[in-house]
Amino acid sequence: LEDLQDAFDFCFKVHYQPGQDKNRDPQYTRQLQVLQAKLQNLDQQRRNVLAQMQQLLGRSETLRELLHQELGDWRERQQRSCLGAPTNTQLRPLETWFTELGQGLFQLQKLLRALSELRMKVTYERDPLAEETPLLQQRLQEQLKHLLKSAFVVEQQPNTPNPCKRPLVLRTSSKFSTRARLLVRLHDRNHRMEAKIHIDRDPPKIKGFRKFNILTSSSKTLLAGDSPQEGLICDFQYLTLKEQKDSRAGKGSKGASEGPLVVTEELHLITFTLAYAYCGLELELETSTLPFVIISNNNQLSSAWASILWFNMLSSDPKAQQFFSSPPLAPWPRLAEVLSWQFESVVERGLSRDHLLMLGEKLFG
């Protein structure tokens, strides 16, 4: 396109000399016809390039929808793995697909900018670049934003280093860790990307809902490792939580913990935010953990774990912090499957049909 445009521009400046005398010159008329043919060819090539870009954007939308479905399947597998299910939660294949789609879209962005520069040099009436390039840029920006926002995920749910294999149950004053990952491995090394964590950023409107502070550093600069295989990771380790005390609580009062939900049914969330910038695009990305329970004593562990089991077994909304305000019933086949996962995660062997029948009789008679 650039070569065609330069050739047309040169011929136009040399040969196009409008005037009454010139218009009667047969040689000048032939030169105008050659110029018109060059312009028509340039116009057709511009339309061809724009049509190819439209087609590529349509295919990338289809691919992005497929990746969204794959990511949803991965989230379900991760949720089941928290309950002890034997399932694969590796992110490497998804990371590869997300990154390659991101590279393709950012390459299209560079080409669209190059087309805009060409239009600044040569334009004409009904120029397709003037009409279609802004619409393509808007469509491309929307695709990039959707891709990047969905590519920011929690790779490791909040977890304490205990031998009981009980993720999503945290204890005040005890250390825990959590990690998020950006699946699009593209970043500007000259731009400082800061990741932050917030606990209960948008708390539920429940009377007595406890509030907590993260005592250790709640922000980190996200740095890619020397190897591109390491990915873009926000790894927060050795975090601790401390409950905010309600100054209005009187002596002998339960204070902030007084409310309709017991401590072991109170669900909390950690939200990651990331200031992302690459190739002129700047976004704030956000992702949240699964709900977790915060306890202060080990004798609350069993009840807290029961809440985590019940939520992840039955809830389709990962942010439903008021789930236990009206908890649903669980069908026995679903509960039996989860109990079998529990045994398998600890002793590497699930429950047989006879085992489950015996447990069912114990529960239901």
Give the CATH architecture of one domain. Up-down Bundle
Mean pLDDT: 88
Biggest sheet strand order reads 6-4-9-10
Class based on secondary structure composition and strand pairing: alpha+beta
State the total count of DSSP E strands.
11
Strand content: 15-25%
Q: Determine the fraction of residues in helical runs and give it as a percent range.
A: 40-55%
CATH class call of one domain: Mainly Alpha
Describe the structure in your own words.
With 365 residues, the chain is of the alpha+beta class. The chain has a domain of 149 residues: STAT transcription factor, all-alpha domain (Glutathione S-transferase Yfyf (Class Pi), Chain A, domain 2, Up-down Bundle). Helix content is 47%, strand content 17%. Strands 6-4-9-10 form a 4-stranded antiparallel sheet. β9 and β10 form a beta hairpin. α1 packs antiparallel against α3, α3 packs parallel to α5 and α4 runs antiparallel to α5. The chain is elongated. About 2% of the residues have low confidence. One of its GO terms (biological process) is signal transduction. GO terms for molecular function: DNA binding; DNA-binding transcription factor activity.
